[in-house]
Each structure stands twice: as structure tokens, then as C-alpha cells.
Design a protein that fits this description.
single chain, 393 residues, mainly alpha, Growth Hormone, Chain: A, 17 helices
Length: 393
């Protein structure tokens, strides 16, 4: 029963946090128009958010190695609610920067995939892929259902009420967190599991550490460029506001399938195949937009890229566990996710800068195409490190 409560809580934390995170991309264009800002400036705000949340994911990983996960997650939820909810009353551009980039960035980084994934990996050591697939699916489900709902709110009431609802959704999670069992930092099946493995410093001396870091850096670069700029790009190509917002939600639908498949596939075949397929599909999707940017092509891109959007998420903590053990699982996993989100901020910023300089996203799509090629190559090299097989204990 404790495991089911943690799975449910983890799913819903990811559900709400993901919806709130992607709300900024949904409201990017109307906010830019109201505050007379270039997309590069708002892209910088998103970049700051990703850098801040990345650092806080690393912090959350260290905290969960030492303290009760419930307290860590509850603190993150409360801070997130304040940051995202108060955007509704923003009156100056710096308010967006402070509330989304800093306050929400801190909260969303603490109540993030890092501590939740570590919790379920401890509780389900033999089915870690499936368990992580379920909680990662919460991110795509939040993107699908919350963004679809908020697209209607945006059309009916404007962008500010979107953030009121997002703040309330975070506060609604607190009772469920109180129902979670206390976490003592160790898996149920192995009392000494938390003491086995490499330290962070020892891990950094290995080739597999830097391969993982490179793969997740590129993954983040691609992910958050797309999630930040997809709606605005679609609107530039003549797609109406409601349909453009629903493209982001549609990406969440295919991401749901990708996350679940990736977790289950790891349990059957190991790490490398789902990770490699992720980047092969990204090569194809960015290549499509370099050839055509019709409404049909944009929709096709959304569907294909969406499948890959969370395919690596269920694998992060598992890959770290398999490569370096569990002694410092939170710290090392948090660092990998920090790099992922830090480069995500770079992708969000770079997309806005390239658009402002050229009036289109073509150069940004070319950069992402090349990055996906590099990530596929790094994944092949990682496969030779023999960390990809599923573990049964």
C-alpha cells in the first residue's frame, strides 16, 4: 500500500508541476505583446528558470540522501504555488523574471523528478523501469490535460487566470503528501543498499559519467527549446491560438506513451535501445521541419518529437544506479538532471535569440538536428560501457 501511495503522489506531483512549467510556453506570445518584450527576453526568463531549477534538483538529490522525502517535497510544492500563482498579478517584466525564473524555479526544482524517481526506485528495485515510467507519465499527462484545459482558459479569460489555477493546483497536493509514508533513505528490500557504490568524486573519474552527462545535456537542450517555442512557432505559421495550445497538449499525449514504453522496455531489454530510439526519432522530426513547415509538418513534428519528450526521464536514476550504485544516488542523479535542465535553459534562450535575430526558427532547428545526431552517437558509446542491463534486485 505504501508503494501505491508513493506512486500516486509522485504521478500527481509530476502532473501538476509539468502543467505549470509548460504554461509559460502557452502564454509566451500574449505576455510578450502585453509587456512589449522580445521573445529573446522571455526566453532568458525561461533560461533562468531552468538554471535555477537545475541547481535545486541537485540540491533536492542531496537532501533526499539525508532527510525525509515528504518534507523535501512539501517545501518544494509550497514555494512552487507561491511563485506560479503570483504571476497572475505581475505588472512589470521583472515580476515575470523573479516569480517564474527564481521563485517557481526553486520550488519546481525541489519538488521534481529527482526525489520522486529516487523514492520509487527504492520502493520497486526489481521493477524500477515500470515504476519510473508511471511517474514520468505524470509529466506528459499534466502537459496533455492541464495545458489543454488552460488553453481554453487562455482563450476565454486571458493569460492571467491560467496562473491562478496553476497555483491552486499545487496547494491541492499537500494533503496527499501528508498521507505518504516516511522515507528513511533506503529501499525496502535491501537495508544496506544506500551504502553501496561510488562517491560523486569517484563517479566523475569514469568515462560513463561524462557520456551520461553529454547525453542528458543534449536531451535538455532539445526538450526545452521545443516546449518553450512550439506554440509561438505554430502561431507564426498561421495556426490559431487554441489549436497551437493544443499542439503542446498533443505533445503530452504522445509523451505519455513514450515514457510508459521506455520504462517497460528497460525492464525487458535494458537501457540503450529506448535511449537510442529517442534520438533517432528526434533526428527525423527536426529534419522534417528543415524540409517543410506546413501545418501538417508542424503537427507531424509535434507527434514524433512528443514520443521522445520523456523517453529518457524514467531512465535517469536507473542509469545512475546501474553505473555508480546507490550510496550517493540522489547526489549523482541530481547532478545529471541539473545539467539536463541547465542545457534546457540554454535551448530556451538560444531559440529566442535566434528568432529575434532572423525572424524565424530555421537556424535553431538546424542546431537541434545536429545535437540529436551527437546524442545518438554518445548513446552508442554508452552501450559499450555495459551499464544498460536491467537489475533484478
Amino acid at each position: 500500500m505504501n508503494g501505491l501511495i508513493v506512486l500516486a503522489a509522485g504521478f500527481l506531483i509530476m502532473f501538476v508541476g509539468s502543467g505549470a512549467r509548460f504554461a509559460f510556453g502557452l502564454t509566451l506570445k500574449p505576455m510578450a505583446e502585453e509587456f512589449s518584450l522580445g521573445r529573446g527576453m522571455l526566453g532568458t526568463t525561461v533560461a533562468v528558470y531552468y538554471v535555477v531549477t537545475a541547481v535545486c534538483m541537485f540540491l533536492a538529490g542531496r537532501l533526499i540522501d539525508r532527510y525525509d522525502a515528504r518534507n523535501v517535497l512539501a517545501a518544494g510544492i509550497i514555494i512552487s504555488a507561491a511563485g506560479i500563482g503570483l504571476i497572475a498579478v505581475a505588472r512589470e517584466p521583472w515580476h515575470l523574471f523573479a516569480l517564474y525564473g527564481l521563485v517557481f524555479g526553486i520550488g519546481n526544482g525541489i519538488a521534481s523528478i529527482t526525489p520522486v524517481s529516487i523514492l520509487v526506485t527504492r520502493l520497486y528495485p526489481a521493477r524500477a523501469g515500470a515504476a519510473n515510467g508511471i511517474i514520468s507519465a505524470g509529466m506528459s499527462a499534466g502537459q496533455l490535460f492541464m495545458i489543454a484545459a488552460m488553453a481554453f482558459v487562455l482563450v476565454a479569460s486571458g493569460w492571467r487566470p491560467v496562473y491562478v489555477w496553476m497555483g491552486l493546483a499545487h496547494l491541492a497536493l499537500l494533503p496527499l503528501l501528508l498521507a505518504m509514508p516516511r522515507d528513511n533513505g533506503r529501499s525496502e528490500g535491501s537495508p544496506n543498499a544506500a551504502r553501496e557504490g561510488l562517491t560523486f568524486k569517484e563517479a566523475t573519474r569514469t568515462r560513463r559519467f561524462w557520456l551520461l552527462l553529454g547525453i542528458y545535456a543534449i536531451c535538455g537542450l532539445d526538450d526545452f527549446f521545443v516546449s518553450t517555442h512550439l506554440v509561438a512557432f505554430a502561431q507564426d505559421k498561421g495556426v490559431d491560438t487554441l489549436l497551437a495550445g493544443n499542439l503542446l497538449a498533443l505533445m503530452g499525449l504522445t509523451a505519455l506513451a513514450g515514457a510508459l514504453w521506455s520504462g517497460w522496455e528497460y525492464d525487458k531489454r535494458g537501457l540503450v535501445w529506448p535511449m537510442l530510439l529517442c534520438f533517432l526519432l528526434r533526428i527525423a522530426s527536426f529534419g522534417l521541419l528543415l524540409v517543410s513547415q506546413s501545418t501538417l509538418a508542424v503537427t507531424g513534428f509535434t507527434l514524433v518529437f512528443g514520443i521522445t519528450f520523456l523517453m529518457t526521464a524514467p531512465l535517469t536514476v536507473i542509469a545512475v544506479r546501474n553505473a555508480f550504485g546507490t550510496a550517493h544516488l540522489g547526489t549523482i542523479s541530481g547532478f545529471v538532471v541539473m545539467v539536463h535542465h541547465g542545457f534546457g535553459g540554454l535551448g530556451a534562450w538560444l531559440g529566442g535569440v535566434l528568432f529575434d535575430s532572423q525572424g524565424r526558427y530555421d537556424a535553431a532547428f538546424a542546431v537541434m538536428f545536429v545535437s540529436a545526431l551527437i546524442a545518438a552517437w554518445l548513446t552508442v558509446l554508452l552501450g559499450r560501457e555495459q551499464i544498460g542491463q536491467p537489475r533484478t534486485a
